[in-house]
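#onboarding

Welcome to the new folks! Below is a worked example of what a typical request in this channel looks like: someone posts a single protein sequence, and someone else replies with the predicted structure as tokens. Don't worry about understanding the tokens yet, we'll cover that in week two.

Example request:
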Amino acid sequence: MNAQTYDVIVIGAGPAGENVADRAVKGGLTAAIVERELVGGECSYWACMPTKALLRSAAARRAALSVPGVPVGDLDPAAVLRRRDEFAAHWKDDSQVGWLDSAGIALHRGAGRIVADRVVEVGDVRLTARHAVVVATGTSAFVPDIPGLRDIAPWTSREAAAASSVPGRLAIIGGGVVATEMATAFAALGSAVTLLARSGVLGSFEPFAGERVTEALREAGVTVHLGAAVTGARRDPGGEVRLTLADGTEVAADEVLVATGRTPNTEGAGLPAGQWLTVDDTMRVNDWLYAVGDVNGRALLTHQGKYQARLAGDVIVARALGKPVEDARWGRHADSGVVPQVVFTDPEVASVGLTAAAATEAGLRTRVVDYDLGAVAGASLHADGYRGHARMVVDEDRSVIVGFTLAGPDVAELLHAATIAIAGEVPLHRLWHAVPAYPTVSEVWLRLLENYPL
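Example response:
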């Protein structure tokens, strides 16, 4: 076999893999990336970028409709899909490959398989790592074992993100982030959408978030079935799909999107198939193997994967050069306790840290402060009839915020302030001195603090 040696070998060229390789090279090591599909990974072609492009046009139209004096026409689905294609680079990775080359990172195309300690085979090439092998292979959509479901060739998040046309009727199985975002997107594009949410809508968030998104989906014409369990699926000769529910009713659709979770991409990589890779806070599995991004199961979010990758790259460099690793808190380690997330539905949902229920389960003595976002002056200027809600969860013993959730139009850009407050453990008496500008929606911070007497 063709044998090559590098300091670091990364399997997977998504955002996490690219970042750990880049950090290693900038630290003076050599690095190679192995990629079986497109350089740039799921986020660039089938997740973050194309899905948000699908959602953005409708969000902009809704914003224009919420203030008088702005001429607003109908949404043009073909134009939306063309814009989505641009953001997915027409599913070509030339620019991403060019970036790898400019960064001094070698690329090996093909499926990487770990065959021995620090050894990865890609086709007829045998790669050996002097210091570390990093698994950054991400996840794939989980398709539940429902009779007939796989036979109908259902959509997963990939097919939804890359759809070349808008189905007349779309049934979505699931009630999480992918399910609700795609229900929002395709309803706006003209599909008759049915959402089958067996375990509820956005169940991992504060309850009011799921309630408001469910209400908005129904107002947009989406049929939402809560507690609906799919027990069978079949596709008729004419192409129509019929889903059978536990109560015996049937749902007819032209396409079915399965959005019921993710499974780690470890099969075929010389790792236990379908198992998350357990890591320490420096992302290390063992003395030479690391796992960053979704595959370690800590937080299935691109920004968290990149965060882990930057830290892992620094740690690998330090260990390779015999330098100490500052793995105490605020050092070179990944703390998954403060995870920001935005759901780009209508309304948007933005959250970071713990929900009220999770904080109680963690044994914290908490106080929950809620506020009506629509009562904030900046919100009423932002949109007529603005409806939204904000919640902060306070650790009473330390007088710091441990959780923050917003639901409302355009709340995503408010989230980072909460992330800083929680990650930095800023005491509430100091937050009083962080005065929000008037009139902005961020004035909600003042209103929340006013409702939490010190």
